[in-house]
TrEMBL record:
Lineage, broadest ranks: Bacteria, Bacillati, Bacillota, Clostridia, Lachnospirales
Record Gene3D superfamilies: Alpha-1-antitrypsin, domain 1, Antithrombin, subunit I, domain 2
Family statement drawn from the similarity comment of this UniProt entry: Belongs to the serpin family.
One GO CC term on file: extracellular space
Pfam families recorded: Serpin
Residue ranges annotated for the Serpin domain, each copy included: 87-450
GO molecular function: serine-type endopeptidase inhibitor activity
Protein's name in the database: Serine protease inhibitor
Polar residues bias (residue ranges): 23-32
Region annotated Disordered, chain positions: 23-65
Amino acid sequence: MERVTAGVLAAVMAVGMTGCANSGMSGTTTDLTGQYGTKEEGQTEGTGANGQTGQAEDTGTEDTAMEEKDLGAIREAFEYSYTQFSLNLLRESRKQVQNGEDAKNTMVCPLSVMMALEMARTGADGDTKQQMGAVLYPGMSAEDGSMVLGRICKSLPDAEGARFHMSDSVWVKTADDVFVPDENFLDTVKTAYDAEVFGAPFDETTCRDINRLVEQETDGMITEILDQIPELAVMYLVNAVAFDAEWETPYDESQIQDATFYAEDGSGQEVSMMYDTTYRYLTMEHAKGFCRAYKEGYDFVALLPEEGLSLSKWLEELDGETFHETIRQENDTMIETGLPQFTGETDLELKDTLTALGMPLAFDEEQADFSKMGYCPDGRNISISRVLHKTHIDVDGLGTKAGAATVVEMCKETAMVEQPERIILDRPFLYAIVEKDTGIPVFIGTVESF
């Protein structure tokens, strides 16, 4: 039997803020948003997390559930769990990027991928939903994780000098009556994610409209996330995030000097190194690093493995709890730092990565269970066919601009020292952009070559 699954989630973190998300849409796309999310508070099913602005209030059911538990302990468990997911995603994605070739830089946006897949998990059931929850929330209850994710996303800092914005949309194929979306699913994503809902024919105009939306939400950082729409695609779920932050203390021109970055094969590459002195020293077994603050709410974190230890070996042994505790327990020690200016892009298809992490059922044409998302009148099953993820980052003397897009495509079946410590990032290192209050990495990546 021929099968296909169609549903796409595009999660984007990037530069700048945008105005009307659906401006410039073609005449073939219809805004259906007003038809959903009209249930009275407390009636909507599901526990999806949502974006920064215009989100639904917490339901009484959620508040009651959280009151019955130790919220502090659950939040701490989520911070460890989220960081572990971030490292798992980076490790597996890095393997795909490297693919036995010379060292390449890798960056992923765990929040983007998590939000995209969490929307898909809302429409999943049975073992498919269980596997997705175990991958997204390692070591904790997926229901608890989803509730905390929603609360944290609502409170992520968004201020002058550190802009953050997140939005969601659902695209449903309206041509040929090949798919009937579940009304409760659309109500849930509208209420819980404040998602816009669009009906479209899923032709070339729809592909352009989705790409235009992503480009608008990323202020041009991601210009094309979707290459084409397969004939059997029936739904796309799109999550977009924007991030643009200035350093609390920008680098002066005199602090930026030519230097050499040494790849793991010993080859030298010329870079522009930004030098500074700070008191935010990080240390852990086999690595050391530093934090550097943005104007509001976020830190840039860099960790450098000890001399003689490859980034690959160190990263393979690093766990979420150790990483999280390290960045939460910085030492007030004066250090001299060197951070190279860099620009990076990563383009991934995450199906194999997510399968390796433990959620193969979501991609299985016959066994995937997304019955809460809708159904095909011809009886064919739906499953995830592709998870596309693109990221872009610019780090310079003024600050950081970063963008990411994730598309989940679902188709029908077919210490004190006398001399300052020096941490000069002139060889491969791990970096992350973390939210100060929780310490969770919004972006995480490696710099290995220029």
